[in-house]
Amino acid sequence: MLTESQRAKMAEYTAAVSADTAAKKRLAALFDDGVYTEIDAYAKCGEDLTGVAAAYGFVNGAPVYAFSQDSSVKSGAVSKAHAAKIAKVFDLASRNGVPVVGIYDSCGAFVEDGAEAMNAYGEILAHTSNLSGVVPQIAVIAGVCSGSAAVIAACADFVIMSEEGALYLNAGADSSSAESAAKCGISALTAKDDKDAVEQAKKLVSLMPQNNLSPVPEFEYAESGKKAEGSAEDIAAAVADEGSVTELYAEFGKASFTALATIGGASAGIVGTNKTADKLTSDDTAKIARFVRLCDAFSVPVITIVDTEGFESGAEAVRNTAKAASAYAEATTVKISLVTGKAYGSAFVALAGNNANADMTFAYPDAVIAPMNPIAAAEFLYHDELKGASDVKAKREEIAKRYADEKASAFDAAAKGAVDEIIDPANARAKIISVLDISAGKRMVKQLPKKHSVN
Q1: Distance (Å, rounded) from C-alpha 28 to C-alpha 35?
Q2: Cα distance between residue 81 and residue 91, in whole Å
Q3: Which of 60, 67, 171, 444 is the most exposed place for a label (fewest CB within 10 A)?
Q4: What does pTM read for this prediction?
Q5: What are the backbone angles phi and psi of residue 423, rounded to the nearest 5°?
Q6: Alpha-carbon distance 447 to 202, whole Å?
Q7: For residue 180, what are the contacts with CB-CB under 8 A and spacing of at least 6?
Q8: Beta-strand pair 100-106/62-69
Q9: Measuring CA to CA, which residue among 104, 57, 27, 62 is closest to residue 208?
């Protein structure tokens, strides 16, 4: 028999852990059928609960750990006890190889904790950094995410930001909107509200492997029935399964395209160029480098659709282009390059050539693969022929076309071993699936011993 004191305590406990807060509603929206098991539900900071709900459950049938900050308790301030719950989520995810979804809604540190509050943030940052590349991490910005919390959230593999959220380091010093986060490449996806953000998180969880040792997820699928022609987005939609393409970072690096999709029922990453411009900017190459490294960390195959004149000039562009080239060169996941149009100089080298270490490089019959832009080649190689022309511009264009047809065609590249096969756009999807099938058991490529790349 419980004593009166024990019954009172039990009633207090039940009321506390069963409170229907916004944080718990977000967890219910994340997990299948709203069912989850809470972790340390009664943990306290002083007389109050910690201001964060931690839990585990299933998302579309796959196990997931999650935490959801509770702005109704001291504005979700991060105390030592608050951080301990989040750290426990990361620790359990590490032990079990399970993805983590963090839902952020907090005003910042619990200032009464003083230096302990900074230690609390440091503990969370250490955990999320140690788990990077081990299990997928998704940050959902549902409310305010400021200061050190913004840094921690940005360390996740994907940031999904609600239009109702705010993300910033210093109040008033920089823009905090979802639009700003998308334009500067912090958020991968923008959502209308917290419910939409959680739905998008569920989709990304499903597309990614459980951890870095798990196979890519597989799904039932239907073919798009489209011919792989047109823009990078059109070709991606054609080679991917019907309705499966989820574009990421659409507002950042607008000359490029990055997306997760399924191809033949299995998850894959797609990189495309020439989305809005002929040349890739520094933002584009930074975006591509990060996406390729993410896919490689979890052995998600990467299909690269190449149609670009190359990279913009400038010191920053050179630095980020080097990062993109290094990302491809180091990646040991399955890589397939599809040259659909222009592939000039360093663009071919970085994205489709031997440096990219592609398992297979395909090209369309009308692709142009050259050490330099054909117009520049006309000036450099045919200067004497241009000198006597009455219409230099017309003559230059004529020579450039001849150069492209005779010296820089896909057939010439194939004859020199730069392209594995020339294919009809109608067969692009089937060819890509055949490589994915034969490469499904690809072994880890041996590399020189080192801690990590510094590019």
Answers
A1: 6
A2: 15
A3: 444
A4: 0.92
A5: -130, 155
A6: 35
A7: 174
A8: parallel
A9: 62
